[in-house]
Amino acid sequence: MNIEAINTFLLLSETGNFSRVAEKSNLTQSTVSARIKVLEKTLNVKLFERTSSGVLLTEAGQKFHKYAASMLEIWQQGRQEMVRSSSPKKTVGLGLHMTMWRRFMPEWLVWMEKHHPDFAFHVEADYSERLVDYISQGILGLAITHMPSALPGLVVEPFMEDELVMVSRNACDFASCDPVNYIFVDWSYGYREEHQEKLPEFATSNMNIGYGEIALEYLRISDCYSYMPRAYVSDDLASNRLHMVKDAPVLNRPSYLVYSKHPSNPEVINSAVIGLRAVNTRLDQGL
Asked: How many domains does the chain have?
């Protein structure tokens, strides 16, 4: 499928105006129109409907939009990868779950640069599902995720267990914590089950926040409490901006290393794994 047509489709869905797309793309309006017609013919659906103020996506166009965005992103990443592959340096691509970059970056990069100055680096932070997709697509070489997905062609092995502690802006003990003021953050798959087992009274919290950064910012200004990875809030605990809730159970969140069974550069993947384990050991020892 023509990537230029995909890009034109995305621009038109954003602006809703053929002339603006033409101006942004340095094309004639007829060329923009022709690209959309070719795309509609290829898909055998109508993607846009005209209105008095421009065009709007049809229902089919709305469904196609997410695939078009993914195709463009993969294409752009592929181009970048080809540029990197033409470099004489070996490239290692590492993906980290959104909540884990604080634990390993930039320590891992420092370790890798020290031990492998001839390497080039590509680092992404995203959610587990997306990182596994990146491995499958060859965009990344390895990732640390919280989802033990056993997919064909991938190796999944336990990496570490992250401690999660209940924290609050105010010093308090667990017995005084009212579930009404509790924020539930859905940290990972294994975490949910342990949370339900050890804190059933907090499972029906009135506040459920899906992104840890939002919950953390709210904790800093509210009288609520929630579970946070210890490494995630280490600076807040050290400065007494947050306090660990006394006697609250410590929960665990498992993480996994994911990489291809048959990587194109196994020695690079092995070096990256050694670096991750070395950094994790140092952090565990407080060095």
From this structure: 3
